[in-house]
Amino acid sequence: MLRRLFGAGIYGFWMTAPSQDVVADLNRRIADLERQLKSAADDNARLWNEAKEALERQTATADILKVIASSPSDVQPVFDAIAASAKSLVGGFSSTVFRFIDGMAHLAAFTPTTPEADEVLKSTFPRPVVHYAPFRMTQAGEVTQVPDTEELRDEIADIGRARGFRSMLFAPLMNKGSSIGFIGVTRVQSGTFADHHVQLLRTFADQAVIAIENARLFEEVQQRTRDLSRSLHELRTAQDRLIQTEKLASLGQLTAGIAHEIKNPLNFVNNFAALSAELTDELNDVLKPAELDAKIRGNVDELTGMLRDNLQRVVQHGKRADSIVKNMLLHSREGSGERRPTDINALVEESLNLAYHGARAEKPQFNVTIERELDPNAGTIDVFPQEITRVLLNLISNGFYAVAKRKAENTEIGFEPVVKATTFGRPDHVEIRIRDNGTGIAPDVKDKMFNPFFTTKPAGEGTGLGLSMSHDIVVKQHGGTIDVLTTPGEFTEFTISLPRTSNLADKSRG
Amino acid sequence: MSVLVLVVDDEPDVEALFRQQFRRDLRSQRFVMDFANSAADALTRVDATSDNSLILILSDINMPGMTGLEMLPKVKEMRPDVPVIMITAYGDADTRRKALEKGASGLLTKPIDFAVLREEIDTRVAQAH
Questions:
Q1: Any chain A CB within 8 A of the CB of B110?
Q2: How many percent of chain A have pLDDT more than 90?
Q3: In which element (H, E) is residue A482 found?
Q4: DSSP single-letter state for residue A288
Q5: What is the DSSP string of A293-334?
């Protein structure tokens, strides 16, 4: 009756002692439930741990990815972060990241332990990979474990002892099927590593490879941009040079054209003036025997005299105009058109001779001492030889003019006009110096002297084109520099610097 | 009959210039000078003088219409015995080569050196006598 009232499993207050079977049955059921509860609790705990580990792994992965994103060109922060994460998550003793570069194993990152142990680690690397056990072990691409370092009879055991660990886990960094490095974690205790730790390290290894690849691509893009930028600059320079060469050519043609046009009428002026001077002399001769009134003869003589003098003046000015035209034609003469390797010393020597003999032919009483100091290292460079010759002729003849002027102006005893040519060969350029001990250049003239049509020579003697052309040829056509040092009353020195190579395959007209 | 030098140049003042330069020779009739102001005109003149009086032709190169170089082979065909000297402002090697190839005996550059020209004429005048 009580049983029915209180249901199964409840023992009554007054002891109607249950049977032995019932107790046993109940006990069994309790034990079952206890087992189930325990099992459920265990499962719970396990799932909880797995979730925790997964979360840890995801967090660590996300953290490393953040480092990769924030440091696209530098892999060091990524390796440092991976080493630190690996060690803390595995609960390890230490962690290292290695890279294999050109057959050598390099220590890329590590977690510090003790100063002495760290020294041991650092001093062992870089070292050749062929003798390095982890390299051999990770070549297959699999994560590898060493549960007990003492079992390996090689240096790893030694290192383990020296550093203080007994077990190791390596995850190789794989790129295109071969190992380019690995991440290693160590533990003080021996034994195998848990699966989730292996998984973790595998993930870190993949991320390290991504980071390396990222950095490489980033650097490639940077390099590509630098190359393109440089190419653009070179193209622009080449374009400028081409324009300049064309300008020089067309200016040359213009000057040549004008000069030729002027030559013709100028020839007639000179010819007829000379003839007319002769004819006035003939007139004089014709009139000599004539019987003329003294006054009339006086007038006639005066008039024929003036006629002859006038005509001689016309001849004289005509000759000046002629030399100006010749000068212009000289400056505008078109070059050979080709840029070619030229022995600089030979060119300087030839220019000196041309200038000297030219000056002597024009004024036989002109005297100057020519000195040369030609550097054997000057060698050969690519230039437009006729143009550089023109520049040198211009500078040398300017030097002649200056020393002649100084000689004429001063009454210094023992003043020796000297023009000196020097060459210097440097690795990437050649210098040519033309120095004269002439009248020098005043500061206000120095500012303007490269301007076209500027000259200090008296009317008819200079075109004012020489230095302007020289500047354009050196600077714009050859990409060089032209500088001047001077002390008024003492000396002037022009320095031309010509680059050895330009990256322009420039065979355009000079 | 006097020997004849024919000068071909489109510039009209060339006649005045030559006549004044050679006034003594012309006055003494050592030779006679004739002037044509175009290549076509010159060819007509050469055709007309089939006798030996023509001893020298002096011709400019740059002329409107037929140039001196174009006229040169034609005149040499007509009178292969008469030397032709070209006169020009352009003394470059290329022009010289072309002139000689076409049959010119020489090339003088402007401004003309009349002393040299006088020598050339003297030589021919001597040969003619």
A1: yes
A2: 25
A3: strand A481-487
A4: T
A5: -HHHHHHHHHHHHHHHHHHHHHHHHHHHHHHHHHHHHHHH--
Tell me if chain A has a CB within 8 Å of the CB of B21.
yes
pLDDT digits (tens, 9 = 90+) for B83-126: 999 998 877 888 899 999 999 999 998 888 899 999 999 988 88
Q: How far apart are CA A465 and CA A127, in angstroms?
A: 68
Q: Are strands A429-436 and A94-101 parallel, antiparallel or unpaired?
A: unpaired
Reference A308, options A285, A341, A340; nearest CA is A285
- Interchain contact B20–A (C-beta under 8 A): yes
- pLDDT tens string A358-410: 888 778 888 899 999 999 989 899 998 888 988 999 999 999 999 998 888 87
Average predicted confidence (pLDDT) for chain A = 84
Please give the pLDDT value at position A118: 83
CB B107 within 8 A of CB B91: yes
State how far the Cα of A199 lies from the Cα of A90, in Å rounded to an integer: 11
Q: B65 and B40 in contact (C-beta within 8 Å)?
A: yes
For residue A480, the 8-state DSSP code is -
Q: Give the per-residue pLDDT at A26.
A: 93
Number of other CB atoms surrounding residue A390 within 10 Å: 21
Contacts of B11 in chain A (CB under 8 A): 264, 268
State mean pLDDT over A172-192: 87
B13 CB within 8 Å of a chain A CB: yes
B110 closest CB neighbour out of A267, A275, A279: A267
Which member of B13, B89, B111 has the closest CB to residue A260?
B89
Q: Taking an 8 Å Cβ-Cβ cutoff, which residues of chain A contact chain B?
A: 260, 263-264, 267-268, 270-272, 275, 279
How far is the alpha carbon of A264 from chain B, nearest alpha carbon, in Å? Answer: 8
CA atoms within 13 A on the CB side of A123: 9
Instruction: Report whether B59 contacts B5 (CB < 8 A).
Output: no
Who has greater pLDDT, A96 or A139? A96
Q: What global pTM score does this model have?
A: 0.49
Which residue's entry shows tokens 């082979």? Answer: B73
Confidence band for A319, pLDDT divided at 50, 70 and 90: confident
**ipTM of the complex, rounded to two decimals:** 0.83
Interface of B with A in 41-70 (CB under 8 A): none
**pLDDT at residue A508, as a whole number:** 43
Residue A270 · residue A318 · CB < 8 Å: yes
Instruction: Note the pLDDT of residue A337.
Output: 64
What is the amino acid identity at position A312? Q
Sheet strands (E) in A359-428: 369-374, 380-383, 418-425
Kindly list the residues from chain B whose CB atom is less than 8 angstroms away from the CB atom of residue A270: 111
Cβ–Cβ of A263/B13 closer than 8 Å? no
Q: How far is A391 from chain B (nearest CA, A)?
A: 23
Interval A363-374: pLDDT, tens: 888 889 999 999
Q: For the residues A497-502, what does the mean pLDDT come to?
A: 84
H helices present in B11-108, as ranges: 13-21, 23-27, 39-48, 68-78, 93-101
* Residue A438 C-alpha, separation from nearest chain B C-alpha, in angstroms: 36
CA-CA distance, A195 to A206, in Å (whole number)?
A: 17
Place of tokens 């953290």: A63
The predicted model gives A416-422 an average pLDDT of 93
- Strand-pairing partners, residue A341, are A382
pLDDT digits 0-9 by tens, A265-305: 888 998 999 999 999 999 988 888 888 888 888 888 888 88
